[in-house]
Structure formats: structure tokens, C-alpha cells
Amino acid sequence: MTIERVFVAGAGLMGHGIAQVHAAAGREVTVYEPDIARAEAGIARITGNLDRAVAKGRLAEEARSGILARITGTADLADAEDADLVVEAVFEDVDVKSALWAQLDGIVQEDAIFASNTSSIAIDRLAAAVSEPRRARFLGMHFFSPVPVMPLVELIRGSATSDDAAEAVRALAGDLGKQVIVSADRPGFIVNRILIPLLGEAMRAYEQGVGTAQDIDTGAKVGLNHPMGPLELSDFIGLDVVLGIMRVLHEGFGEPQFAPPAVLERLVAEGHLGQKTGRGFHAYPR
């Protein structure tokens, strides 16, 4: 199947990056948010990314203009009707995602591929929101942030996902310049199955007074050669997002290493979500 028209549902941290890389690979992209101002804000972030690339000599002005010309914002789900691929990148919540997929199932052409950017929720659980024939073209396409920079995509097949749909997405990811790994349909897939216990243990070390946030992060960066410390990375991802992933993993496996630490629950309850709010485990100038 040829994928030329892409509909991205969600224009936030992940969605705007997903839209950018598809447009940069020559696809026509529609970015959806129920509030058009949020879709336009996502496109403005893409414009900023491209402007910085031009200023650094990494992108020609003509290429920048071409990418932006292929991106349209909308607040109308009906604009997904002719999409070849729908990528969902909304909040990591089963009910939110399922409600959106159920709506899209009644709108989008029957041959389109449905791909969720979920970072933790089982694909079969989300595919249950669409009609049975559609499930053969439903899968996980998990990007990593920042999407234009990170070269990995996790491909997750549900129990009904067809070979044709999986191969079409694998070929597309290659066009996007991404390396594909394939995960079984288990909570957290491969990367977050490994990462989340690390983040949780760093948080528990912090709440038990083993070290300051700075020292814990420095220990990981210098002692483990990680590019970013675990608490800093959690702030970058968004503590609400991390909490949501931990809850999915803990529900799915029931093992203590996946349980959300109390300090994370408290920070999220207080509205301290990391970089996007100016405070998490670290403080960020705003």
C-alpha cells in the first residue's frame, strides 16, 4: 500500500514532530486538534524547528517552505476521510484513545492504516475500539521524542494486524529515516519495559534521600554514560506521561518495579509536571 496522505491526531510534544517528519519525507499531512488554535500552535512549533535548522545550515530555505506547504491544520475529524495513514498521538489514556479511534473508524476510508503512537498500552486493547475488519490494519507505531531527532520506531503488531499493514509501516519508517524494532504486544513494549523501572528506581532513591536530584542524574550521566539523567529525562518526557505509563505497566504486570513512586504521584497531583510546567524533579526557567 502506498502512503501519501497522513492524518496526525494530536499536535503536542509527539504529534507535531510526527507531522514534521512525514511532511519532510514528502507526505501530505493534516494535523488535528479539536481546538484549531492547538493545531496551529503545533504547526508553529514545526516552523520553529525548521527555522532553526535553516539558521544552522542544516536545511535549505526552499526545503523548509516545501515541508510547511505540505502541512495543514484542522479541527474537523472529517478531514481524515481520505487519509492513507492515521497516526494517533493523544494523551496516554485508554479511554481517550479508544473514543478517538471509534470516531475515526466511522470516517476514514476502509483501506487506511491506523497507527497508535502509544508508549505503553496494548494494541489489541486499543483495536477493540474499531470494527473487526479494521483491526487487520491497526498497529502500534511508537516514535521517540524529539521525533525529528530520535532515529527509532517501535512497530507493535496486534493479534489481527496483517503482514501488508506491518510491511507498509516498516517501509514508511525507512522513508522517514527511522530504524524499526518489532515488539510483541505487551505493556510498555521493549524500550519502556526497560526504561520505566530505571526511572522509578531513581525516583525511589531520591525520595529515600539517597542523593539529590542533581547527584542522581550526574551519577547516571557520568557513571553510566547516559546522555541524560533519569530524573531529568522524566521531567523532559512529562511526569504525568511517565505516571500514566507506570500505571499501565503496573496494572499489566503487577510487579513492584513498575509501581509509581509516591514522590511522582505527589508531584503530578501538585501540577509539577517537569519542563512543560517549569518544575518537576528540577526547576526550569520560564
Care to describe what's here?
- The chain is of the alpha/beta class and 286 residues long.
- It has two domains: 5-183, 3-Layer(aba) Sandwich (Rossmann fold), CATH 3.40.50.720; 191-269, Orthogonal Bundle (N-(1-d-carboxylethyl)-l-norvaline Dehydrogenase, domain 2), CATH 1.10.1040.
- Helix content is 45%, strand content 14%.
- The protein has eleven helices and eight strands.
- The chain has helices spanning 15-24, 36-55, 61-69, 94-105, 123-127, 163-175, 191-207, 213-223, 230-237, 239-253, 262-269, and strands spanning 5-9, 28-32, 71-74, 85-88, 113-116, 138-143, 152-157, 179-183.
- Strands 3-2-1-4-5-6-7-8 form an eight-stranded mixed beta sheet, sandwiched between helices.
- The longest helix has 20 residues, at 36-55.
- It is globular and about 55 Å long.
Helix/strand layout:
Layout: E1 5-9, H1 15-24, E2 28-32, H2 36-55, H3 61-69, E3 71-74, E4 85-88, H4 94-105, E5 113-116, H5 123-127, E6 138-143, E7 152-157, H6 163-175, E8 179-183, H7 191-207, H8 213-223, H9 230-237, H10 239-253, H11 262-269
Helix pairs in contact: 1-2, 7-9, 7-10
Helix content: 40-55%
Strand content range: 5-15%
CATH topology of the largest domain: Rossmann fold
End-to-end Cα distance, whole Å, is 45 Å
Structural class: alpha/beta
> What summary fits the major beta sheet?
8 strands, mixed
Mean pLDDT: 97
Q: Judging from the principal axes of the Cα atoms, what is the shape?
A: globular
Poorly predicted sequence stretches spanning 5 or more consecutive residues: none
CATH-defined architecture of the largest domain: 3-Layer(aba) Sandwich
User: Strand-and-helix sequence, N→C?
Assistant: EHEHHEEHEHEEHEHHHHH
